[in-house]
Sequence to fold (678 residues):
Amino acid sequence: MQFSAVGAPAMPAGHLFYGGDYNPEQWPREVWDEDVRLMREAGVNLVTVGIFAWAHLEPTEGRFEFGWLREVLDLLGEAGIGVDLATPTAAPPPWLTTRYPDVLPVDERGSRYSHGSRQHFCICNPAYRSLARRIVERVAAELGSHQALRMWHAHNEYACHVPYCYCDHHARAFRSWLERRYGSVQALNDAWGSAFWSQRYSDFAEVMPPRMTPTFANPSQLLDYKRFTSEAFLEEFLEEKQVLKAARPDIPLTTNFMGFLKALDYFAWARELDVVSTDNYPDPADPRSAALSAMHYDLIRSLNKNVPWIVMEQTTSRVNWREHNVPKSPGQMRALSYQALARGASGVLFFQWRASRSGAEKFHSALVSHSGQASPVWAEVTQLGRELAGPEPWATAKVRADAAVVFSWANWWAVESSSSPAHDLKMQDQLAWMYLPLYRRSVTLDFASPAEPLQPYQALLVPSLYLVTEDEAANIRSYVEQGGTAVISFWSGIVDSRDRVYLGPYGGPLRPLIGCDILDVAPLAPADVVEVEWEDGTKTSATFWLDIAAEPQGQQGKVLARVTSGPWAGTPVVTASQYGKGSVYYIGSRLDHDGLQRVYDLVPALRPGPTDFGSRLTDGVERVVRRSPDHDYEFVINHTDNDRKVLLATPGYDVLGERPADGTLPLGRRGVAVVRHG
Ligand SMILES: [Zn+2]
Fold:
């Protein structure tokens, strides 16, 4: 592990974390010894402990019991198993919400949640904050110097179940946040466009959280409430971080993200982490699950490009919280674990170590199943543990992406606003539309905030960047001006940071990049499929949306394709233009697969990979490369239940099979190969 930035004694270089959440408080003492013995058998080297232990660590207010947890850490430490020690603040005990009932959050209708589940707290509640801080301080004081400690883990899945609370504490905190942001109520009125529907405020005291309203709330108010909420959770996290780091500054700190979680701006959060970690539960019943999982990992790797990342939670087989929970196929857990490692992870962990007998997740799979070691899962768990026992030569190699998807949480919040002409325009659909064809081409993508340096990339994908600030747009323009290529989709450059429309032809500060004037923006009828004709007469199709574009004038772009059916026949739908030394392709509708491929074919960084090893892949096989100064490691993963063959143009060495690899590389069902080149 490379945790030198924080001076961590976490793991020697080249080793990977393997393990899971360990909840010994669910089990009698005699089970703990067997747990530790089985962990060693499985090759587990890190377990997350204490994550839901508040009620056991503080059974009544102010009475603390840490002896049992210290004994657990002693057992783990003696066995050489590291501990990722969590704070238990995601699940306050019943005594707390009984004594301080307004800790319970309030929904937009004014109904208060009850305890009996988890995450039943208001992040702005002073009693919660004070009691949370005290238990975090006790965790740090009691166990911060324990020799088994390898990592701090704040909280669990911030904002997972109750991202938005509308209580009076939130109302007060929101008003203070707005005063700091805007300075005067006049500035607030301007920002929110409060002249509409007589919403003009005369005092900050009149402002409410966006509680239930007769119809659509003010979209700028909704957007600010999302910003405020992400920052309110972050403030609590930073308080925990400060306590934990004060106790043990030399070990890395994380909190477990959830991939595309809408409520939290993870770009802002990831700056505060030493290790980015994520929980990923692809649905085995979804044929796109491997591709969507890859997109999840590419996002996580990209959030803070200077620190390592790990999978904090996945499941060995099935979850229990979907409507219908099918298990993973034999080998699928291993294949998806290697997918994370191929995309740069420094470890894979699971929820949870031992399947519970009781409680809400008792049918959620675990490393140790209800049926114990007889379960086929155990054989997979121990096999993977042996394979990852390391050191792995590829564990310090890096994933390098030549292209990135431009993505921001503020845009996600705004683009799905209730004022949109298409409430069914979902950011994740837009991302998948542009990302999945490139996944199938083995083109590895990063994600990039529109505010970060973009020069490392040869190409940018810009799916529906509806909200873009002047500074972000200047950053993208500068990137293109200096020679970059951008592929910009419809519904981009529409509003500013306050969700106010940029006037003039649509596109706002992105207009100089777009090869034509966009005069109107509108969804197509749900069943509409329009014909798209290309310069060479080829016909493809498009759906969902159509920007109404004027004919390019003067130095504007060249039309590559037009709509040739329906009321808007003749409208340019794909244009190419030059800006400075760079190129822009503008796409005015949701092109079908073939149409999108035609655009991608024009961009060298988006052409079908692999361009370096020439391996020819068959359907359902994923390919990613980790690069080190000495070698490149080509991961090929069969995500199907059928045998596959990969044709290797460049011979290499099969690291897992420990044999030379040239010509045809056979991959059994859910098979994985790591081919070393160079
Ligand atoms: Zn609240």
Residues 1-9 have pLDDT under 50 and may be disordered. The pocket of zinc ion is lined by residues 105, 122, 124, 165, 167, 169-170 (CB under 6 Å). The longest helix spans residues 219-247.
